Automatic annotation (TrEMBL):
GO biological process: ribosomal small subunit assembly; rRNA processing
InterPro entries cross-referenced by the UniProt entry: RRM_Rrp7, RRP7, RRP7_C
GO cellular component: CURI complex; UTP-C complex
Domain Rrp7 RRM-like N-terminal: 11-182
Protein name: RRM domain-containing protein
Occurrences of domain Ribosomal RNA-processing protein 7 C-terminal (ranges): 191-311
Region (Disordered): 291-312
Family: Belongs to the RRP7 family.
PANTHER family xrefs: RIBOSOMAL RNA PROCESSING PROTEIN 7-RELATED, RIBOSOMAL RNA-PROCESSING PROTEIN 7 HOMOLOG A-RELATED
Length: 312
């Protein structure tokens, strides 16, 4: 069964058997929709990744590792990225990310990169949940070993519609998956009372990362200041300090520039006398043409007038 999504993309349905729980002591089927990953900005791993929609709220990587192992065997599943996991806490202006990357400095040495990565890890506050839940109808990206694995998964899903042997959710999990329920809530209450020194350390690390990225963004902005954009316009600055103007001021400057160019073009249009004569001839020819067309329309209306018979 392959339904068509509202956006026109085709999804294959992967039914997963949800075992009974104390709150709902009956077996149920949960449908996960899967298709080949085709993001707006292509990446090198798109050919060996799958896009999942409507994943269970209690999904974890071990859960899907067990599901895909049952579908195509071990060694095909690499990792899964859930919706919202890749959002960074501190970012540089994304509107110029591609152009900024081209103008950025040369790649730093490995030890400096490792130091910055460790600094960003230290900037995260202590976790207060032993296991994260996902919102309803959440999405995820599954990365497989190769493109062949993607084909095998889709074929296995098609075969499930005939055999009806659906994967069982939570079967074959490793021991590192934290349980939900009262244990999960009590651990959350305990972790919410974080150590003050640990929180303060993470906060200081966050501002160090923030200041470093702000400095990098300022350097990139300085390089881009005098370079034209795709439309040939240069970034507008104010105050002589090199700070970018707001969007309204930039659009106003662009409008004035266009009006100035149009005015200059119109002033040079009839600079020579022969140009003026040619323009007048063109206008007269257009007037005569419209007159003849209107004349034909009037004659046609007069001919039809005699044939008109009103209804009684």
């Amino acid at each position: 069964m392959v339904p068509v999504d509202a956006a026109g993309d085709q999804f294959a349905i992967l039914p997963i058997q949800m075992p009974p729980v104390p709150s709902f002591p009956e077996t149920a089927l949960h449908e996960v929709r899967i298709r080949r990953n085709a993001p707006k900005i292509p990446t090198a791993n798109d050919s060996r990744s799958l896009f999942l929609k409507n994943i269970p709220a209690d999904s974890t990587e071990p859960h899907f590792r067990a599901v895909f192992t049952e579908l195509v065997g071990a060694g095909r599943f690499e990792t899964i990225t859930f919706e919202g996991e890749e959002k960074a806490a501190v970012v540089i202006d994304p509107a110029r990310a591609i152009k900024a990357a081209a103008l950025a400095r040369k790649r730093k040495r490995g030890d400096v990169e490792e130091e910055e990565k460790a600094e960003e890890e230290a900037a995260r506050l202590p976790g207060i949940w032993t296991r994260q839940l996902h919102r309803s109808s959440s999405t995820a990206i599954v990365l497989l070993a190769d493109e062949k694995s993607v084909q095998l998964v889709l074929k296995a899903i098609t075969k499930l519609q005939k055999t009806k042997k659906y994967p069982v959710w939570g079967q074959g999990l490793s021991d590192d998956v934290q349980p939900l329920g009262a244990t999960w809530v009590s651990s959350h209450l305990r972790l919410s009372r974080a150590d003050k020194a640990e929180v303060q350390k993470a906060t200081h690390a966050f501002f160090n990362v923030f200041n470093r990225k702000e400095k990098e963004a300022a350097e990139i902005s300085k390089r881009l200041r005098n370079e034209p954009d795709e439309d040939g316009f240069v970034t507008v600055t104010r105050g002589g300090k090199g700070t970018p103007a707001n969007q309204f001021e930039a659009e106003e400057a662009r409008r004035k520039m266009v009006e100035k160019a149009a005015k200059k073009k119109s002033e040079m249009k009839d600079f020579y006398r022969f140009q003026l004569r040619e323009r007048r001839k063109q206008e007269q020819a257009e007037l005569l043409k419209r007159f003849e067309e209107d004349k034909k329309k009037v004659n046609a209306m007069r001919e039809k007038r005699g044939k008109f018979k009103p209804e009684t």
